[in-house]
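Troubleshooting entry. Yesterday's outputs looked truncated, so today I'm pasting the complete records for two proteins to confirm everything comes through intact. If either block looks cut off, that's the bug. Protein one:
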Amino acid sequence: MKKKHLPGKILLSLLCALEILALTHIAAAFMLKASPVKLAFVLAAAGFAASLVLRLRVPKAARAFTIAVTALFIAAGAALAAVLAGYSASAVYAGGDDGKANLFAGKRVLLVVPHQDDELNLMCGAIDEYLRYGSEVYVMYVTNGDNRVPAEQRLNEALAAVAVCGIDEEHVIFLGYGDWCLTADGVPLYNADGVVESKAGHTATYALAGHPPFRGGREYTRENVLEDIRDAVLEYAPDVIYAVDCDMHPDHIMTSLLFDRAMGEIVAAGSGYEPLVYKGMAYSTAYTAPGDFYALNIGATADPGGGLRAFAPGIYDWTARFRLPVSASSLSRSLWSSSSYQAASRHSSQDEDDRSTRAINGDKVFWRRETGSISYAARVTASSGDAALLTDFVLADTGNASAPADNVTGVWRPEAADEAPAITFTFDTPQTVYRVKLYDDPDPAANVLAARIEFDDGSSVDVTALDPLGAETEIITDRENVRSFTVHVTEYEGAAPGLTEAEVYSAPFDPAVSYVKIMNAAGDFAYDYRIDPSGRESFSLYAYGCSGDIAGYTITCEGDDCRAYAEDGALVVECPVGARCRVTVSDGENGDAAYFENTGSSGLPYGMQLEINVRGKLYKVQFFFLNIRRFAMSVM
């Protein structure tokens, strides 16, 4: 072999190897619907096969042919990239809804989450809307996320991610506790006594040199986490708090339950500070939810059923969820141009490329926890059992955050010999008792079937069976000048009756905020909506804190040849093929606006199908290198 020809032969051999590799992936091209791109890939595949034959049969022609085919392959790749880039840029949803001031404007909002990326699992898209309306948004991270990745990397990723959302670094609070702290015998920090060392080898709070923790050098104890959460809430005094609930992770469970205990201490202090509190999931409705992002219209968060919480899932009734709209401008029919994805991608050490298709939806769901119960100021006694469990703001507790479903605690239960179980609330001054909320034992085999609320004036209210899975049961009592009342459990099933919480309110429920959102028949919120190809589709209003009767709203439609009107209690939108319009509904205080377009097809756009196929291949490569990086970090 002549040495002067060796480099060329090596290059041709490498190209041959690449061609063989490309042939293994060429079948994906046949799933593409756009004929120009598909044709380019098919021609390249045919060229690769031909070049292999030429290399064996006519070596002199192989070089030129290989160069030509390689050029064609590069051109096909460039065309693919151009098509994807063009589609992605044009796929962002149009915004334009300015009718949510009652919900989003003028607030100081705090997110309480365990890990860096949970802020997006909990609130992606909704953060943008609060900021768009001029509210302040703060994020409190309880841990440093330093289990598999150095804290410095995770914390810097968090700062970069929230910056994409528009949150100032000064509004980021690092409590600085270890990620997934367990004792030597596997007891999680939430249930441990004394100081616990994290998997990263730390025993005290830390963060970044330029962004220190809320309180530096705090030992890793349950009591310190509780105190820091409580004191941070009091220091920043948010109007609205969104806190993670009990996902299937010890850190999430710890964050949720210690936040609840902190709120219990705050409201029991009687200072009058009563923020709006909403609890939501980072796992079941986001991180581990179905990857349903790719749809003609963005869908609602899917109901995870019995997998909603790590334990006692029935505590929250899905039909009673609070559906928070997101910013239309954070949505897109291309994942790559979604601002929520762009924020999530800053968490480069995490598997956010795939997870974003699960977390981005047309709503974020929560459950309101009222903070104005007068039971916290009452003297609460019971015929037997620990009555303090009824007014600690914790709906259900666990004796082991690593196996919570098998260790449910925090439930008031009378002693076995107690034949007349009862709870008495006594007030220092006469109170109005308008409604009472009782939360049954979440154990489906132990249920209160009947009860009686007896007041000090001799009157009473009969109570039917409580929700058997532990969700709230509200009883309207409407009594004035009450100094005391007693809840008598008169019938139950199981070994003993049980309650996790008892709340008492002096007035009807106050939603505190109000808004409406246009919604299709499937319950999906409409933002930049592709209407049924028939040109006619009916919608309703999702209303919170106001009327959902479309008859009480003024309807306007901007767009040639389109119509929007009320008919038989529904909002009807008519839009011929090729037309686009903007529909607004308003009652003078609350309103919504959405775009509607008729493309003449109910199928996914070609660009979306192309992106799905390309992303699938890129994700496999990315996930491979992510695991290599994680392994390298684990052995360093």
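Protein two, checking that the full record survives here as well:
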Amino acid sequence: MEKYTSRGQKMSKKLEKLNSNYRSNPSKSSMLTIAVFLFLTVLTISPIFIGQDVAFKNSSAEVTIICSYEGTKIPNVELTIYPHENRIPIDQAESYQIDENGEILLILSHGEYAIEASISGETGFHGYRQFTIGSQQKHLNVIVNMKPNTNHNNPIDLTPTYADMIQEEDATPIQVLSAMPGEEEEETFPLILKDEILQNKEKWTPVNLETLDPATKTILEKRQNEIQSMRSNVEINFGLIIYTIAIVDYETTYNVWHPIALVDSENGLTHSFDLSVYYGKKITIESEVKCKGVSASASYSKEITYAVNHGPLTVADGDTKTWRSEFRHKYQSGIVYLIIGLVIFEIGDFHREFIEHWYTLSFESESGASLSETRSNYLGEWRSSHSADITMTSSATYKGSIGLSVQRSDIFGSVSISVKFVYNTKAHHHFVYNQPGSLWYVEFYSGRAFDINTYQYYGGGGGGCPILSVFDGENYLDEGLLDIHNVEGEDVIHEHKITNSLKAIHGEYRLRLTEHQKTISSIDQVKLLAKLKNGDEIILYLVSAVHCKDGNVKRELKFSDDIKTVILGTDHKNGPSEYIDLAFNSGSNLEIEEFIFIIEGNNILVK
């Protein structure tokens, strides 16, 4: 703040001089005084509002940023702000500091932004927040909810090394060095560069060392000198030694709370999940870091020891919670260089992101499903009230995934990371089922590495039938049984009015037909009718129909003919009941009042 104070002092002296001039010649000096005053006011006040060397132009809204923990403002927080456009950064980050009162006032232009806030050290805090300034907004308060750093102790290092890399066909691992201040020539894990890059010579650009930053220039000159010393001992490629290297010229780190486990329940079901069963166990991490820019990737496999022993998370009576854990990401960008003899070429830039640390002691739960319900392996079914522990183990063919997928929407928005946890220990789940009624049943399925998902259905009496469920954007909700029973095996047309909320996902309405465990259905055609508010009725286009065992059955279900598809109940196969996932086009700007699902088919069995 000293430079702001000194600027204020300078402005006061200039104002005194202006006032003196005004007293001697007020008419001549008045306009000049006002103009200079306004100019100096901008010079003096603007840095207080928006900092030094600011990147934000055409400011039009006052934004008050407050950092708080449990309702108490936190002073002296370091802030980094990223301007965004469609969740992708469009400018370099700017840094600021919260004042002693726990807030700062900035003048920012309309648009999207992301804030990272932190105070380093074990007694410090950290937080992250995205916000948008609307085109008509003039004032905005942004509160960043901070979390203590105390749970950042003993992180698990997930940074890949050269030894962790998986060699790929038609690809070459190349060395990656840093040109960042304080990290000059430090080595990080390699790029797996596709060989096609080295064959695309028309895209190579000659490099003038004198135009490069000092750190990059030093690294490349050292490699040139190494090549010179090697030429006396070995000569390849008609006397020329070829050397490829990638140099990082920008990097940043930030924390992301990733969902790692879904804990669900059903009506009458209590589900307790305890992740501490993994404490001290070995878990294998498999990941692929995809690069933007040059054609490259980085697949690796890493073994870690899990280190968390907090208590179980319990949900009941249809509630769902997602368990989140904190991870530290590192984003890097740079240039790939090719040295042929003494000539240096730039063959492309690269951008990549990877997970650096896992803070297993930093975790939280939230209501709702931030992960999809994954039903990979059938574990069993309860047809009466029950209480038991259920364990889930890995197999030679099954790998649990915790779904740490990042499309760089957290801050940067372009590079993908996918992480799979291959586990070989038991996951501890305890269930208590107080059966809501004699005809309600619950099934159990293994999902990701850390969770088991449940599915409850009603097995009421009547004719043979599949069970319809609809997707509301988060879960499949039961609609009930569709009675297509016919003892002679003749097709029956049944219409069902959708009672649950049906939400369009990526332009599609999604439904599911699951066969009752005691029956077999033969289905000829399915349709989804939409009744519009203006009275019109339209049949929505069937986009896809995927049988859990037979795959694509759209042709079988699109027309009313003799070509049908069959779904089997649990009692007629070794495993859970079969199902068909359906997707119908949602149309464009349709004002739909209600949906009618129409099914044609038959079932000769009686439950």
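Both blocks look complete. Sanity check on protein two: The radius of gyration is 32 Å.
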